[in-house]
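Example complex used in Figure S2.
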Amino acid sequence: MRHLLSAADLSREEAITILDTAATMAATQSRAIKKLPALRGLTVVNLFFEDSTRTRISFEAAAKRLSADVINFAAKGSSVSKGESLKDTAQTLQAMGADAVVIRHSASGAPHRLATSGWIDAPVVNAGDGMHQHPTQALLDAFTMRRHLMPEAGTGAGLDGKRVVIVGDVLHSRVARSNVDLLHTLGAEVTLVAPPTLLPIGASTWPCRISYDLDTTIAEQAPDAIMMLRVQRERMSSAGGGFFPSAAEYSRRYGLDAARFEALPGHALIMHPGPMNRGLEISARAADSDRSTIVEQVGNGVAVRMAVLYLVLAGNEGTPS
Ligand code: CP
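Predicted assembly (321 residues):
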């Protein structure tokens, strides 16, 4: 694997290789000494043009646990505020010895541009671009589902036949797009539930079902996992649009409240990529329940990002143990 730009680029075999490698990485993280020497002498640059807590910190932890050096770049406070371009920023970091670049950018397609422009000669990993893709989020979500829903299957397993319901602001969600792509590749059956105003044009061509009614979907699908999406109010205002439906209406029709939580099958995983709007798309009761994997998803993100960095930088050298 040279780059990781989109979950849609991954074959089933490639996706399962990443999940299996992440399982090996996760096993090393319960040891007293967590650090592996696999990427010693290499430098990973985290190039973040948009805010992040989980993704940026977990990529940093992942690189360090593989013994790589890490350079963290945030656009805020950098020469980007003086108008420096993506090309010049990337070439500056390459000159400082970047062996891999992890990029988050508000523009959909920025990681692809970086990977294919010839501006730099390093693997590029997409840490979230605009409303397009967030492939490592989808991988950590699939990793979490596989651990809980396929505990006997072991390595080599997909998510065949598992029913996953993804709810909310699909329009602005790179997490939803990436999850639909990856979960379909892994054999899961995905249903998107959203108000018509928060579904992108073209969603009807995606490999999933679409519903506007959460209660009916929960009753009919009896999901193995329900993933609540963050309502991205910041992207709505920047696009000049209002928050439609209203917050109260949204919460009433699409929020995971106490009644919907009770209506879910007892084994159903409660998932959210974070950060959460508690009380809007998810109640505290659901988020903090023992069926919630929200905190575990963050921890699994380190193992998955270790696997991705390892595979793009040293992938043909065998999995470290
Ligand atoms: N899930 C996710 O991408 O979170 P951050 O924005 O905190 O990285």
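Residues 135-297 form a domain with the Rossmann fold fold (CATH 3.40.50.1370). The chain has twelve helices and nine strands.
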